[in-house]
Amino acid sequence: MIRRLLQSFRRTGYGHRSSAGPGNCFALETHRLTVCYPGASRPAISEVTLAVESGEWVVLTGDNGTGKSTLLKAAAGLIEPHHGSIRVFGHTAGRCQTRVSYLPQRGELAWHFPIDVYTLVMTGRFVHMGWLRRPTREDHRLVEQALERLGIRELARTQIGELSGGQQQRVLLARTLVHEADLILLDEPSNAVDADTVEVILDVVAGLAREGKAVLAATHDHARFHPRCDRLMRMQSGRLVEDAPSAAAHRNWDAARHIPAPAAEFVA
Questions:
Q1: Cβ neighbours, 10 Å, residue 243
Q2: Which of 27, 38, 57, 139 has the fewest CB atoms nearer than 10 Å to its CB?
């Protein structure tokens, strides 16, 4: 039964062991990366060059349909590049899945599956456990710690189909935490969730960056993220059009939309 559930997570890269990359390299690096979908009239992303370091929290922003999700999926090794290169810890994307955790948008997952929160979060350990080994005391400790960190410990035995949108997002982030990855890829982590959950997510992600993890989070809601992240990257029509420290990029983004940016937000 768990195996069937994980089919809906297979595109996240969980459950496959592979080698780690060299130590002295970017967590994520692309060079002129272009990705095309079959039958599309233009590339989903085109000529994207970027780098994300360990300990850095980068927010990838832009309107819907600008290629943010495609870039994350390419970084997770779920989509093959048409042109250019993408390296994760010095390896081709998809070759070091124990070090990469991809959190897709909530709507992509099978929430009707009959499984409780604790068990779903434990599946985040499968990339280290394999299919046949039973969870160890350490695996259980990590799951309990993640549930506590996300404020959902009391939901441990709740069926996932009974969760609200905010609770679902917290569960997915807890599952990401127990993976213990070094590169965290988040696709719209604050979309359609309550304000309290957004704050919890921001606190947890900021903590991951402080712990030395590299975080790349895609969102169209840059205003919630820019005060906390290190850099903002902006995509437009499949191209990376801006890469700047978060406060400067936020000002430029607002100016481009003719929305005055409150000066108080950028006072050191």
A1: 15
A2: 38
H or E, element range at 215: strand 214-218
In angstroms, rounded to a whole number, what is the distance separating the alpha carbons of residues 8 and 110? 6
Q: Which two tokens stand for residue 87?
A: 């390296």
What type of residue sits at position 128?
H
CA dist., res. 132 & res. 3, Å (int)? 11
* Spans of the chain, pLDDT less than 50: 1, 10-22, 258-268
Instruction: In whole angstroms, give the CA distance from residue 185 to residue 216.
Output: 5
Q: Residues 155, 61: contact at Cβ < 8 Å?
A: no
Q: Are 248 and 82 in contact (CB under 8 A)?
A: no
Tokens 């409150």, located at residue: 262
Q: From the centroid of its chain, how far is CA 200?
A: 15
246-255 confidence digits (pLDDT tens): 765 555 555 5
Q: What's the CA gap between 73 and 105, in Å, rounded?
A: 11
Tell me what pLDDT residue 246 has: 76
**In Å, how far from its chain's centre is CA 207?**
14
Three-state DSSP state, 152? coil
Model-level pTM? 0.84
Residues of the chain by 3-state class (helix, strand, coil), percent to 5: 40, 20, 40
Q: What are phi and psi of 184, to 5 degrees?
A: -110, 125
Of the candidates 159, 155, 144, the one whose C-alpha atom is nearest the C-alpha of residue 111 is 159
